[in-house]
Specification:
Layout lengths: L3 E10 L2 E11 L4 E5 L6 H9 L6 E6 L2 E2 L10 E4 L11 H11 L4 H14 L15 H14 L4 E5 L7 H18 L2 E6 L2 H7 L2 E6 L2 E6 L1 H6 L4 H6 L4 E9 L2 E4 L2 E6 L9 E6 L5 E4 L5 E8 L3 E8 L2 E8 L11 E5 L5 E4 L1
Parallel strand pairs: 3-8, 3-9, 6-7, 7-8, 13-20
Antiparallel strand pairs: 1-2, 1-4, 4-5, 9-10, 11-12, 11-14, 12-13, 14-20, 15-19, 16-17, 16-19, 17-18
Helix pairs in contact: 2-3, 2-4, 3-4
This protein binds adenosine-5'-diphosphate and magnesium ion.
Magnesium ion binds next to helix 1.
Length: about 350
Amino acid sequence: GVDVDFHDVRRVFPGTVALDGLNLHIPGGQLLALLGPSGCGKTTALRLLAGFDSPDAGTIAVGGRDVRGLPPNQRDMGMVFQAYSLFPTMTARDNVGFGLRMRRHDSGKRSARATELLELVGLSDHVDKYPHQLSGGQQQRVALARALAIRPRVLLLDEPLSALDAKVREQLRDEIRRLQVELGVTTLFVTHDQEEALSMADQVGVMRAGRLEQIAAPQRLYDEPATAFVATFVGTMNRLEAIMVDGSSVRIGDQTLPIRGASPGGAGTPVEVLVRPEALRIRPDVEGVWEVFVATFRGATTRLQLRRGEESASADVPSEVASSYPPGARCSISLPDGPALVAP
Ligand code: ADP
Ligand code: MG
């Protein structure tokens, strides 16, 4: 696959800075997920790469070549959007062959390639069906086959799973990732769903208001969020009241821990310590200041919702010990040793 690079890309619409100096590097063959809330600029970035729109400043390069001035049909990009993007009056096979027709392949070749791609996405039995005869998940498979049929240099996916039910979404997510790895096609995947981003991507770029907050491999992003925004946007994060004891350590309950990253202030500054539900240590304790009020079974783990006055927290425990924490039970919690992430 080819490398894709955004360099200081800026795009301004009346009243909105959609992209405020975006820098991205996607190594050839990798899948980069752009993750962020609605309106943060994800689709704008994708449209600029596709060539549907042009940056006001900055450059975009594919395979080391500036793509400025190249129209979309000369960029060799396969695209899948949220839904309903198939041509309703064409069969699955003709939809998949469409890009090849535009490229003037003859009909025999087109049909063979379309059949091959439909097989690849598990739709061999549906080649002659029309979109309305297919489920949402099947339609998105056809859209994926269509995007891949032209052997794109880059695959662009804009929330392709958002309109599907949970089960289908999960299946298709795994399948897109499998195909992407097998074909080694450089992919930009845009989503507001953190689970999707974390499970599919080599690298996840978290965006906020037209800027990249952090870009990192999924595990790294999850374990070491660089900012409070990333910490709370990706996964569930507890925010526990604490107080700085000096510029570099924080006191929470009876623990004193060093802090990670920039100091939010000196001794006495109130802060919040950010900690994942599964990282929180918990033990039953009749003298404990926390009270269990809900326990939610989640399979291997059970999530306990805890409260202490106005403050609340979530803790995940192995389900086999969940019976030690019935609603109303008292408990105490502690943080893992090691540097704590704090937010002012
Ligand atoms: P996302 O895909 O992350 O939800 P978008 O890239 O679609 O966000 O939009 C980013 C911002 O730019 C939003 O505030 C949106 O309203 C604005 N925007 C996007 N496209 C246009 C456009 N063609 N004209 C005016 N504003 C736009
Ligand atoms: Mg969008």
